[in-house]
């Protein structure tokens, strides 16, 4: 027992105060993350649009996220990660509230796009801030702490969101918007440059003649980004198609769907930090990514291999959680290992864009493919894509030095 307690204590020690403050801001923000996971259900159940139209809205959200990733990454390198995070949180919060008041389908599409541009510009700035506040030897743990905050918030927000969705979908938009604005207030109170000496307004290049490598000319990183898109395409089914599968095929209600989503967050909160602490620096980041992607593949395969609805849902989320713990923290460590402070925003922006492109394809194509060919065909295809990505990540780890 004492060894386990010591392991947990060591896993959380040595991180900077600013890293903890940034994670607290993220926790507050993510406690209100309810709209995106339930957006497809909201559109089909409350607005009575078709499954294909609901998928289109999610694809539009992804398109806005691509733009937000590029813009946020570029502006982060120019004016600093603090201001981009602040503006994105305030602007996103106001637009979430506005979106919940719109009934017209075309206006929902337009508002969703601009909401996504503003809201998703936060991601590269936040990723850059984590790298800035951390040291190289604890950078993976710093990202894991931030992910812990995200998943604790996800556990609470997903559970409450499921309860609210079963009563009134419009409450989701208010809670999401208010949590964004509250997080912005906390960011200003704790991490404003005038109140926290660890926060810089922008990165200043040490020499005017210094050449900084472009992320777009880093061939290893470009291959990594392409594989990340494939993996993220599969992962995003958890947020668009899987809830529909639970509702339509397994006949699970919204409350249980929210609980299943919450299980993922609770398990990550309990085990990710100590897992990363035990593994960080012992093998190449890509080694862990390979096994994480394989576990994600298995999490989709069980949909076709098991039959009891409750068992299927729980087994899938357990496998997906293990895969997430092994893959995502080390994906962050991989991209940060290839950049310098002067171009972190660019690398972070491209990484954000990869996930956003996958969001366009995955969240739009998933429901459409399920509608056209059935869920069983979809799950085999997704599992196969994950396995392909795992093999390709392994190939990249073996050939990284030749590029």
From TrEMBL:
Its main location: membrane. PROSITE patterns: MFS. It is a multi-pass membrane protein. Keywords: Cell membrane, Membrane, Transmembrane, Transmembrane helix, Transport. One of its GO terms (cellular component) is plasma membrane. It comes from the Bacteria. It is found in: Cell membrane. The chain crosses the membrane at residues 20-43, 55-73, 79-99, 148-165, 171-192, 220-239, 259-279, 286-303, 309-327, 348-370, 376-396. GO terms for molecular function: transmembrane transporter activity. InterPro entries: MFS, MFS_dom, MFS_trans_sf, MFS_Transporters. Pfam families: MFS_1. Coiled coil: none annotated. Residues 18-401 form the Major facilitator superfamily (MFS) profile domain. PANTHER family: MULTIDRUG RESISTANCE PROTEIN MDTH, RESISTANCE PROTEIN MDTM, PUTATIVE-RELATED-RELATED. This is MFS transporter. It comes from Taibaiella soli.
């Amino acid at each position: 027992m004492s060894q386990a307690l010591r392991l947990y204590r060591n896993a959380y020690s040595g991180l900077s105060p600013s890293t903890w403050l940034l994670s607290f801001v993220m926790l507050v923000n993510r406690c209100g993350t309810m709209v995106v996971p339930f957006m497809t259900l909201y559109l089909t159940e409350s607005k009575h649009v078709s499954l294909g139209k609901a998928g289109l809205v999610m694809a539009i959200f992804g398109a806005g996220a691509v733009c937000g990733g590029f813009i946020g990454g570029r502006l982060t390198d120019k004016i600093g990660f603090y201001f981009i995070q602040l503006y994105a949180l305030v602007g996103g919060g106001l637009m979430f509230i506005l979106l919940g008041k719109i009934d017209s389908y075309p206006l929902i599409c337009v508002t969703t796009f601009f909401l996504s541009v503003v809201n998703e510009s936060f991601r590269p700035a936040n990723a850059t801030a984590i790298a800035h506040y951390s040291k190289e030897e604890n950078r993976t743990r710093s990202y894991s702490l931030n992910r812990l905050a995200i998943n604790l918030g996800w556990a609470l927000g997903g559970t409450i969101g499921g309860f609210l969705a079963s009563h009134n979908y419009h409450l989701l938009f208010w809670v999401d918007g208010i949590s964004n604005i509250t997080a912005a207030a906390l960011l200003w109170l704790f991490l404003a440059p005038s109140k926290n000496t660890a926060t810089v307004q922008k990165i200043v290049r040490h020499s005017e003649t210094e050449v900084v490598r472009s992320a777009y000319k880093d061939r290893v990183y470009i291959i990594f980004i392409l594989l990340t898109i494939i993996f993220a395409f599969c992962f995003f089914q958890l947020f668009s198609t899987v809830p529909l599968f639970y509702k339509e095929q397994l006949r699970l209600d919204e409350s249980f769907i929210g609980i299943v989503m919450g299980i993922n967050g609770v398990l990550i909160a309990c085990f990710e930090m100590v897992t990363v602490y035990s593994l960080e620096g012992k093998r190449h980041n890509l080694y862990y990514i390979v096994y994480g992607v394989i576990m994600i593949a298995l999490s989709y395969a069980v949909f076709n291999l098991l039959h009891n609805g409750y068992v299927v849902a729980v087994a899938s989320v357990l496998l997906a959680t293990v895969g997430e713990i092994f893959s995502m923290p080390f994906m962050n460590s991989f991209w940060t290992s290839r950049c310098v402070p002067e171009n972190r925003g660019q690398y972070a922006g491209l990484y954000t864009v990869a996930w956003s492109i996958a969001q366009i394809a995955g969240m739009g194509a998933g429901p459409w493919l399920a509608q056209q060919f059935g869920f069983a065909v979809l799950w085999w295809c997704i599992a196969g894509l994950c396995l392909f990505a795992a093999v390709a990540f392994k190939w990249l780890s073996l050939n990284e030095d030749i590029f």
